[in-house]
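Researcher: Please translate sequence to structure tokens.
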Amino acid sequence: MRHLAQHAFSSPPKTVRTARAFAMQALDSWGGCRRRDDIRACVSELAGNAILHASPDGRTYLVRIIRHSHCRHVEVHDSARQSSVRMPPPSLPGETGRGMHIVQELSDDWGVQTAAGDGKAVWACFRRPEALVSRCSCEH
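Model: Translation complete:
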């Protein structure tokens, strides 16, 4: 069974907090999730990246949370024309450049999908610990 929660956000930076709260409310409405902290961190990173790099001129970005029986799937849709994300080598100094490395470490799988029209969706999948699958295979 699949459940979907989605919400569009404007691009000021403080909406990252609101996007994160939206994702947590969706998980709570479905009975919670053991991967809650991982999902919260990844929603923060993906929403922050959408604001910083991919939603120019105040365009909105969309957060979508999908509950599959064996995993939770997170997508952040933005209006960027490029269909890739940068993953610079992580470096100790500096305040940026580690977001997608965090997503890669906390999620079971992640990727980028070109969206209809302009834009892309960056997604991350979180397998339920008790799921009998070795890899996340959510539809994205």
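Researcher: Any highlights?
Model: The CA atoms of residues 16 and 102 lie 16 Å apart.
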